[in-house]
Structure formats: C-alpha cells, structure tokens
Amino acid sequence: MSGYFDAASTEPLHPAARSALVSALDSAWADPARLYGAARSARVELDRARARVAAVLGVRPDEVAFTTSGTQAVQLGILGTLRSRRRVGRHLVVSAVEHSSVLHAAEAHERDGGEVTIVGVDETGRVDPGEFAAALRPDTALACLQSANHEVGTVQPVAEAAEACRAARVPLLVDAAQSVGRMPVPSGWSLLTASAHKWGGPAGVGVLVVRKGTRWRSPLPEDEREGRRVPGFENVPAIVAAAAALEAFAADMATAAPELSDLVGMIRTRVPELVPDVQVVGDPERRLPHLVTFSCLYVEGEALLTELDRLGFAVSSGSSCTADTLRPSHVLEAMGVITHGNVRVSLPRDAEPSAVARFLAVLPDAVARLRAAAGVTGA
Questions:
Q1: Residues 6 or more apart from 244 whose CB is under 8 A from it?
Q2: Does the active-site annotation cover 144?
Q3: Does the pLDDT at position 52 exceed 90?
Q4: Which candidate in 144, 165, 296, 321 is catalytic?
C-alpha cells in the first residue's frame, strides 16, 4: 500500500518476519519449558531469538524478557521497579509527553499512595535535561523518559537524563518503542522497553530489558516463565519472527533512514507553503527520521483523516477529540501548540518518494474542501 503513512502505529510486517514466523510455526510450537525433543527445539529457538534481540540492543541475553506487548513491558518495568525500591521512596518522575502506558502506570502508582512529578517540555516537545535532573529527589524510586516522542518525533536527551539519574542513584526507564531499529539505542539507562510491531515484527511481542544490578520485582503473582519477569506461555514463533524482523529492519534503516528523513524534511517544508494556517510541530532537527506532524486550523482531525483515506492515504491524528479519549492530545497540549486538525505522517521503511509527492499534491485541496464545508473562507 503505497499510501500507508502510519508506521508509528504499526510498521507493515517485514518479509523476514513472515518467513521466520511460517518456519517457526512448524519448528518452535512446543512448550519451551519441557524436556522432550520438540520442546528442546522450541527452547533453542527462543534462546536464539533472545540473543539476536540482545545483540541489536547491545545488552546481555539474560537481561532481555519478552512480553505480550510494549504496553505490558512498560507497565511491568515501572511497577516492578517501584515495588522493589519502596524502601528508597515512592516518588516517580516522568515527562509530560510520555506514552499513555507510562502515564497510566504513573496514575496507578498515585492511586496506590505514591507521588509523581511530571516534567514539562518546550514547544518542540523536548525535555530540558536540567529540569529533569532537578525533579530527582532522595526518595525518587524511578524516572522515565522516552527515547523519542510517538506523536511529534522529537528525540529526547536520554544520555543527559541518564547521567543525572546515575549521579542521583535513580534507575531510568526508557520507552524506546519508536526508535528501536530506526536509530542507535541511547546509553546509560537501567530499563528499556520496546514493541516488535513498530519494527515490522508481529503484534503481540514486547521487550523488557532490565540491566544487571537494577533492582526489580514483578508486580504480578510469581510465574516461572521469562526469568520470573513475565507470566504465561511464550509465543515462541512470534518471538522468533520479531527477532528476525529487528535484525533485518535495523539493517534496512542503515540506508533507509536518511532517505526517509529527507522525505520528512520535504513534508515539513512544503506543507506550510502549500496550505495556509498550518503549524508543523516537533523538533525540526533532533527528530525521528520517519515522522512529521502538522496541525491545520479550521479543520476537524477526523474529517481530514477520513478525506485522506478516501484519497488513498492512511495517516493518524493524536489531537482531535475522539470517541475513546474525548480530549485533545496530551503531547500537543504539553507543548502548547495547535491541537486542532492534527495529522501525523509516519513513513514505513519502503515509502516511495512518488507517494509522498502525491500526498503533497492532494493535501491542499482536501483541506480547502473541508474548510469550505465548515464555512471557513479565505484560509
């Protein structure tokens, strides 16, 4: 689908993942915890997949656990660290633009009697390292900072935040769902989470990395699976496919990322020239290579998405009041930018320049039609 521009939601399944999945359905279907031949084969496949993911992330295989989603990885990482460090304190630090999985875990911590400090961002969506460091206290049990923002693409100062956390003896959890495979993994963190379908793996596989020396205890009833970190039967075929996709996707990005970044740069430049009353948001330089977000005044986000879908383009919106949230994007609100008529374009690994050119060709008329239908003239 040449007009699929929603890779930040889910990257299309990588051919390497499809091939590995089909093979593993035959070779790795048995229970990897058992001792008979088919089970031992599944265990070998699971261990190999763990080692392959660890190699891409630059960590030890025994630091990697597979979860059922990126959201589960985040919530286990946060709640497990908070549980293990209750003697230190019950204070949690997060940024204002974290993924909802982080913010929902923070809310659960508050309901349980904990305290949360939310660090704001500038108008590009970036956390100030000094403000993040200043939020750390002697009773801070954990700090969380995403590697890059999922709505506007801004890359966060993880290395600086990690240095401050290290000095304060506070573990740092990095939600790297949007950046793993697309750019180098930042250093200095204690826990990292990711999601396979963001890099072209199958849905239903997340990754939780807990570095050696980091105190962590599962917030769930004890289970023997995944080093006692994640309960339930491992989906070994999907995990094998996720590992194959990560290796292949990371290799693809060595050449594709600069090309995608150039296409995104063109969108950032051309949209304000082609469409009046538009604000392109996010850091123009320190950003993910594949993602750009802009907001159009006088247009409802859902209406614009529906119109673009009719024209053959799949994009998303994080800003408009939808049936499930009934409020604008918390990311755009925290940045203090326009939340109305928001469009997020996120290009898959094989995005075609011709498709981007066609998107830029149809966008102005689409916006103009919707504004006219809403009674807005001269915009």
A1: 14, 16, 17, 19, 20, 49, 52, 201
A2: no
A3: yes
A4: 321
